[in-house]
Design a protein that fits this description.
The chain is α/β, with parallel strands linked by helices. Helix content is about 35%, strand content about 25%.
Length: about 300
């Protein structure tokens, strides 16, 4: 039987890709006051960002429950006897622990491996996609898990925030610093290391921030796949895809929408680039890889990590 792949909605996977690759997505919860929505089920991204802008109450998110995962595992066990469940980084969310607990609750003899991706958004999405392709090719659970872990080590992620006010609302940035940033029109850049989000600099204009995203691709080492994630700027994401397409096969460049999990902190105008460098054979024939390029290395930082609230 084919290994089934499970992830959560923090992966920001486009629905058509999840369906095509047979990936089951467990939704996180979005809360506006006492009103609770399932991400991608009871509330769309358009509805979420409209509420984010208009609602007097800043939203919060919460992780899927163990029973949510148990129900998914039990249902999938009727189609397979092996499941790989790949979750958002455990350093920012309790979703991984919920998946582990869900495995214990599931009334099934199905073999279930739960993997901590150590990434977010389409960084996680790219890992899940790669694992799903390998599973569809007939690889068993041990092989899918081994290659999935290799793919995790090959993910690079960089994002630019258009405003600091949503970080301020969520309590993740001092008010004085946020107000100063707004006055100077500073656009913070965020990267990911060892499962946690860190500021990696700032730019004065949005165009310079987008240039930094392009440079990440331009200088990366033998890219396998790229994802551009936007919150509210599809035309901008499309333009960046066209530009990247001049140096990398468009077939492997995906555009996705930033969901509530990070949207509550980033807000409108957030743009993230995730890529998977060549380090495993998952999901793409070696002959389709690009020639090796000089690796892009972010400078070492000695600044505090971003303590985003746990899902």
């Amino acid at each position: 039987m084919t290994v089934k792949i499970v992830t959560d909605s923090t992966a920001d996977l486009p629905p058509q890709i999840a369906q095509q690759l047979g990936i089951t997505v467990v939704p996180v919860y979005v809360c506006f006051g006492e009103k609770v929505y399932r991400d991608g089920v009871d509330i769309s991204q358009d509805e979420f960002y409209q509420k984010l802008i208009e609602s007097p109450t800043h939203p919060t998110t919460s992780q899927p429950s163990p029973s949510d995962f148990a129900n998914v595992y039990s249902k999938l066990s009727m189609e397979t006897d092996e499941i790989v469940s790949i979750q958002v980084t455990s350093k920012l969310s309790g979703t991984y622990n919920s998946a582990l607990q869900g495995r214990e609750l599931a009334r099934t003899r199905c073999r279930i491996e739960v993997v901590d991706s150590l990434v977010v958004s389409m960084g996680l999405g790219l890992v899940a996609m790669a694992a799903a392709r390998l599973a569809k090719a007939g690889e068993g659970l041990p092989g899918v898990v081994e290659e999935t872990r290799q793919a995790i080590a090959c993910i690079r992620l960089l994002g630019v925030f258009d405003t600091l006010k949503y970080l301020l609302r969520s309590g993740r940035l001092g008010k004085a610093k946020a107000l100063l940033g707004s006055m100077l029109n500073v656009k913070p850049l965020i990267t990911m290391r060892d499962g946690e989000l860190f500021p990696t600099g700032q730019v004065r204009t949005r165009s310079k921030g987008i240039e930094r995203l392009f440079e990440l691709v331009k200088n990366a080492l033998n890219i396998q796949e790229v994802a551009i994630v936007h919150s509210t700027t599809p035309d901008e994401a499309g333009s960046l895809r066209e530009r990247i397409g001049s140096i990398f096969d468009k077939k492997w460049i995906h555009i996705a929408r930033l969901g509530p999990a990070l949207g509550v902190h980033g807000g409108p105008g957030t743009l993230i680039l995730a890529l998977r460098e060549k380090g495993s054979s998952i999901g793409q024939d070696a002959s389709e890889g690009k020639p090796s390029r000089k690796r892009f290395s972010l400078p070492p930082l000695h600044i505090p990590k971003l303590g985003f609230s746990r899902l």
